[in-house]
Amino acid sequence: MDWFFNTRVWQQMHGNPTGGETGVDNEIAEQGLAGLGTWILGRNIFGPVRGPWPDESWKGWWGDEPPYHTPVFVLTHHARPPLRMAGTEFRFVTGGIKAALQQAREAAGERDIRLGGGVATIRQYLGAGLIDELHLAVRPVLLGAGEALLAGMNLPALGYESFKHVAGERAMHVFLRKRD
Amino acid sequence: MDWFFNTRVWQQMHGNPTGGETGVDNEIAEQGLAGLGTWILGRNIFGPVRGPWPDESWKGWWGDEPPYHTPVFVLTHHARPPLRMAGTEFRFVTGGIKAALQQAREAAGERDIRLGGGVATIRQYLGAGLIDELHLAVRPVLLGAGEALLAGMNLPALGYESFKHVAGERAMHVFLRKRD
Fold this sequence. Notes:
Two copies of one chain form a homodimer. Chain A is of the alpha/beta class. In chain A, 25% of the residues lie in helices and 26% in strands. The first copy, chain A, has six helices and eight strands; from the N terminus they run αααβαβββαβαβββ. In chain A, the strands form two sheets. A five-stranded mixed sheet of chain A has the order 3-4-2-1-5. In chain A, strands 6-8-7 form a three-stranded antiparallel sheet, with helices on one face. Chain A is globular, with a radius of gyration of 17 Å. The two termini of chain A are 31 Å apart.
């Protein structure tokens, strides 16, 4: 994520209005955040708590003002009441990816829905052909092990094509979309 | 391979001295071909024949003058006498990757040895920690299925690091090397 952490956009989202760099990476980060009506997140993006929620004390990684400023639908197997924070409301969805998408569509109206990860969540939506456009920021870092985003995923068979790639300062940005 | 087929270097190698494009991709292609003393190829890069060689009629994909112009060691389970072509001699090695590397070292002297693929061959050498430097040309093309070059390969544990990446016209060039 180093390509993103160094952008002006990210720095502004985190209280540093003049920090960060402008350029291609920053422009692409900006475009990815424009026009959003809502987000969908896997539970592990929301937090490290596993299994049933022991209480409601975990309120995300982001402090009192999360950076979303929209409704955010969190996929989980364990019900929890909505969590209202400054500018952002987290709503917990136990009905699976299609239920979350349906609720997100209603909340977003004409605006876009952004899927904020993690890997398992993106693989589920992609495998179901429910992602219209996918932005991959390819940055060469050797992790050794981990989840493989596209392993075993036959993207052409799922109807996807790669329609654009742009060299940024720290990453290559690849855009996939579903063919009509 | 589209990034390579459009370079001046590749066009020159194939009898078109003024065709192709100059630029970053072309420079990187040139650097990768400079100072080579020999090549190692997996058998499927040499040709489509499987199992024992029925005869010696298959002489590679490249016509009478292959583009290597060095000795080329071809990994195979099936012995075959050396094949002399204009500027290139193919030598067939049945003793495995280490035997081929040893013979390639003797042939190359102070010059470099280039591993020309395919995927299974590179995975064998990489898994054995025998590659000093690896150039990956990352170009977004959705293939659907195929061999995965780095799947399940713990590169940091094998001693590799990513030390450079360069945006070319058609690909991002990533360079890995073995730490000292």
